[in-house]
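Need the bound structure for nicotinamide-adenine-dinucleotide, inputs here:
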Amino acid sequence: MPKKIAVLAGDGIGPEIVAEAIKVLSFLNNDMNLGLVFENALIGGAAYDAFGTPLPQQTLNLCKNADAVLLGAVGGPKWEPLAHAVRPERGLLGIRSELNLFSNLRPAILYPQLVDASTLKPEVVSGLDVMIVRELTGGIYFGQPRGVHVAENGERVGINTKIYSESEIRRIAHSAFKIAQKRHKKLCSVDKANVLEVTELWRQVMTEVGRDYPDVELSHMYVDNAAMQLVRAPKQFDVIVTTNMFGDILSDIAAMLTGSIGMLPSASLDANAKGMYEPIHGSAPDIAGQGTANPLATILSVAMMLRYTFNETAAAERIEQAVNAALDGKVRTADIYSEGMTKVSTSGMGDAVLNALKG
Ligand code: NAD
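Answer from helper R.:
Posting the output first, comments after.
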């Protein structure tokens, strides 16, 4: 059975960076007989321009029938005046909820060649490789009741609700433990169990699920301490699992430890490891069309796809090693350029990875 990948290039630099990722993946597909087939569809502003909606039914159907989705990025100033319901970003939220992608994986990896890009001291961050698993479809971003109302005394009151059911915690726990099994087998669950009852339940369920994974070492940490530890000694972590809002904040801290937004991939998975893979950055309208964007985050997203959806670990490792080799060869796109390096275009970087693969 062919493995189907829906390719959604999106807006801004999306088409430029996705083209490089497909170039790399197509080579490996032939070289290793991976059996992958690709089909393109529109999303975001490009879909709005063609169909009047950021997530056309045919795009959603393609994604539902695919084994994995590769996304570039969506959005840009052209579509900012639009009503919220048809904004490009709605296309993304639509796919996440329609495909039930509740487990968001955001690795923060610092390549030794880019150690100077971080604002932290080299000895604190060099060799950093942390995976943050964020619950993506529950918690305070979705909980009811929510809103702002006027109380009886005439004062305005705002309310949001942090709510997790046992089954929601259980499924993200399984997802995180399985990821830890594929890495260094250390999982830190981050909560605020000393203050919030909802995360007291989170901690209990994490501990219960942990009994199914005796090979993984589980620890617990309060979120305030976790934020501090991430900038104090980030290398103590292997995999972190946490709630939607805590994960939102901690994953941005972790991303910045590496100092280079153009390098970081991400994955959002469902219960069967079907997933959407995308760089963490946006559509970068300020550099779109110039051929200067860094395609490595998208290329590394494809490596995550091979590892987590298709269980093709050897192919994933080949891509990661090729990225390392390209960086060793001193080629740099503008965002990670420093003196003494060779500045290359988006396709120049894609070619450097491809040549390393062919190596
Ligand atoms: P952005 O991530 O697009 O850009 C931030 C800065 O980083 C810009 O200076 C940009 O040039 C640079 N940058 C980003 N990716 C880069 C790359 N691969 N190579 C080199 N430089 C890169 O964030 P923004 O400017 O806040 O948002 C721009 C648009 O993207 C907005 O419409 C926003 O809504 C959208 N957005 C989309 C996603 C997504 O599709 N997942 C995520 C975030 C933002």
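Comments: Residues 13, 17, 73-76, 89, 92, 261-262, 278, 281-287, 293-294, 297, 335 surround nicotinamide-adenine-dinucleotide (CB under 6 Å). Residues 14-31 form the longest helix (18 residues).
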